[in-house]
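Let's do one together. I've listed all components of the complex below, 1109 residues spread over four lines.
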Amino acid sequence: MSDVSIERVPKGRLGVWFLIAGELVIFGGFIACYALTRFEYPEFGSNEAAGALNLWVGVINTLILLVSNWTMVVAHEAALEKNLGKMKSFMWGTIILGLVFLAIKLGYEWPHDIAEGHTISSAKAIAGAEPGSEVMKVSLFWNYYFLMTGFHGLHIVVGSLTIFGVIVSTSKGENLHRVELAGAYWHLVELVWVILFPMFYLIK
Amino acid sequence: MSLLPEAYSSVAPEIGELFNLIFVLTTVWGLITAAALFYGLFTSLKKQGGKAKYITGEDWAQSKFIWIPLVLVVLCDFWIDVKTAHVWSMVEIVSEQPQGDYDIKIVGRQFYWEFVYPGPDGKLFTEDDVSVADGNDGELVIPVGKVVKLHLTSADVLHSFFVRQFGFKNDVIPGRIITRWVQATKEGRIELTCAEICGPNHGTMRNWVKIVSQEEFDKFVKNLNSGEVAMVAQ
Amino acid sequence: MADEKDYHGKQNYVMILGVIAVLLIGMVGISISMTGSNKVIGIVVLAAIQFYFVLTNLMHLKYEPALVNLVAYLSVVFILLWFFGVAPDTIMIPLTITQ
Amino acid sequence: MPWWRNKEIRMSAHHEQSFLSKYVFSLDHKYIAKQYTITGIVFAFIGGLFAVAFRMQLAWPGMNIPLVGVLDGMKYNMLVTNHAMIMFFWAAMPIMIAGLGNFVIPLMIGTDDMAFPLLNMLSYWIFFLSAVVLVLSFLMPGGGAATGWTMYPPLSATQNIDPDAGLIKNLFTGGSLLILAVALEFAAILLGGINFLVTTINMRAKGMKLMDVPVVIWMIDLATVDFMFSVGPLVAGAVMLLFDRIFNTGFYDPARGGDPILFQHLFWFFGHPEVYVVLLPGLGIVSEIIPTFTRKPLFAQRWIIIMAVSSAFIAMIVWAHHQFVAGIDPRMAEFFSITTIIISIPFAFIMFALVASFFGGQIEIKTPMLWALGFVVFFLVGGVTGIYNGSAGLDMYLHDTYFVVAHFHYTLIPIVFFGGMAGLYYWFPKSTGRMMNEGLGKLHFWLTALGLNLFAFPLFFSGLNGEHRRIFDYAAYQPMMVDWIINIRHMATIGAIIIAAAQLILFINIIMSASSGEKAGKNPWKANTLEWVADSPPPHGNFATPPSCYRGPYEYSNPKRSGSDFWPQNEQ
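Okay, and this is what the predicted structure of the assembly comes out as:
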């Protein structure tokens, strides 16, 4: 009864890939819904909606996430070389970069948007607005924006916790394969972001 | 006797034919399968000292007994598909619908139906449309033999416009106007119901469709325009 | 996992990240310069390439056996199926509000 | 390191387990299976009582129903909604997927436990949490959700909602909590499903090729795959619906540019494969039992598996046949109508193959076989009536009538109830070590079958006559108040009551047999698959020595085998 199947896939990796597939379908649901609505309403690109997002902050955030993925793969290589010190420090680097990403999103972008009156609970924004008017559709854009970036942020938190757990559980150099599994989950966050970023920031 | 209610619209008989086709095919297949099942069951019950045959069904000599019926099933499916496409496109696809003689807008509301008739200008979707809601003489009145375009929409939640004798139903959806057509074939007074759950009083959301002769219908329209039927505020 | 070490070949991650960063800059450039539908198309194409790059190189999908590839790509395929199944009756039907 | 990490400790049959780690937070797949199954049966009984309650209202309007009182429209809708919700997500899913899979997969592929025991336990306790949230949702002010189990917005997005009341108050309403409970339930089954797939792929006994894996495990894994790929959009849609309720967003509000149809697509993209998620394991159970009791191989086993795979794929592209009359694009509707009719082909093949398996056998009708026969016969009725609804042109008329109700009760009751009972009677000796009482079992079957047909068959005719669903009192509808339709309502109600009452026999049988049934040996049914190699009940760690597999699971009456008419997979 070996843990490695005829396809030579260790069970941990197989499980993580099934998990990733499930997550991809969930995110895919959100993304498809947004895309359908986006195609329906050009209003989503107006300066009140997508135009109001700060493109350059978004670019900086994307680069931060990219670098965090690089640190993660380096950590994985270190794990293959059984270089525990390097591995651990790079995983900490990943966590910190992830938190910086969150800090920028939750600490700067969201407050900035909310200060401009774009909140997820759009009751105030649409008060007295004509049904089906542009104001309404703009508020729908912000609903999607907060929902999906929030969901993505949630995955960054979960990923960071996972990596932290891996740091703890690999401290004595056992079950190093978990580094790659945590890494795969972390790359999922990037995978989703490379779709979310252009959808919200670039297609105006 | 037919299992479906009496047909009042030009499409209902077509739907009845489709039903009969499917009814015959599925019943025949179901009976054949059941007969085979019970035959096989009762002819091969456990006997003392008997030994079961070793049949894997892998080679053609054995598996042809289910491949050939399967091919026949596929043919029947194809038959049903063709007939279905015919009926469906006749009723639903807008480009294949006949020219309408008269337009009526039907608005589903919790928990009653509102019927909007064209005003004096004879056109729907203009200011002078006359709205007749449940309560005051609020039945849907349509002329017999004419193609009436029904523009279905809703003001709050999902409802479903369902007249049994017309043979079709359609959900009414807030934010959309769905156009269906009906050509009544005989006069009468038949029931209009809501077939999509729309809240606690869904069970009471019903009304009548009154199919009248052309003269009566003209009279009805005149009354509408002269305002004898009370207007219902939006 | 005994076979963990010889599971992957070495690859130059700096270059991969460089490619992704270049694609990112390209997308930003398109969104600033172009307009209309070619802008959307260009951005979508570049995003798809990025997606593919992250999936294969960062997530090491290109080293995984067929089974895992199947699982990963099926999830994308089914979402596309859903999208194109729904598109005809959300995009093409205009919304009209009844009070 | 923690004790569950250590395979040696975990799997040794003799290590001491505290009461908590043995029965409550157990990591043993057999106990988790029992937990799932028992929870499922309890909820099935609750859901059944709901059904009896509103059936009584339909038969005798305005009567004072015991435990429920006099129903009004709201209460009636609430009972209907939660009957469907409970039966699907808290009875069918835990019993047919989680309970069955957890019990049979490791035993049948000859391994000691699931791939991730901790994940397995986690999955059950998330499921338990979801069940608690579900029960809470009934107790909220304004009662539970009353929007139909499909939760179509805008109704479900606005019911019991006060936009100014704020997040917490709107979260603690029946509808919101129901959505939350469903989401938790999905998470639980998803974790369990990952576990099943990894276990089947990685931990098969030595020499077990994919085609040697018993059909039931193929079916469970296919169901899991369908679930995994289809549930995503609904999770997304449920979160959006929840936000519509608690954050006052406008995803499904047409006035704000949202679209109610979007939710229907999200829902049915999951909702249709969901039917196959519970159907395939039922077919699997039956295709285990039929070879065992006919003493001959399963007819065209390889092709049954291939057809099941293809049906699992087609099931993902038929979802919109639930929306023919929902105002979707007519051309798409034609496409979906064709795919829907096409899906009858694989299932026609499987039914033919099951029937062909009878011919030339030595059939011994023990209780499990009786339930399996019931499955085949009644599922035939449900299957052929599916064609009526699949044909778009006819569904225009039949949609949302009692014809649909009769159809899906004729599919789901055979699948979940008869299939599940067949499995219960078949594997009960393995899981408890004692046989179940044959006489009580047969009585249970005949009463249930009588109840089913009395309940569901007449509804076909009232449905064809246009009686539409979810009406709590037909007094207003004169065409629906003619005598024969009223009689049909009475018959259906009596049938439902008979089904509910018949389950008392099951409880008596389980309790009696588990305590004082006759001892079952290792292999009471003389079956081939690997679970019958282990002791009954299997010890912690299942097999004394890991078995290895030499041939397919259905080698009955093989002429090469002299002496006995069965040839266990693990014997040379």
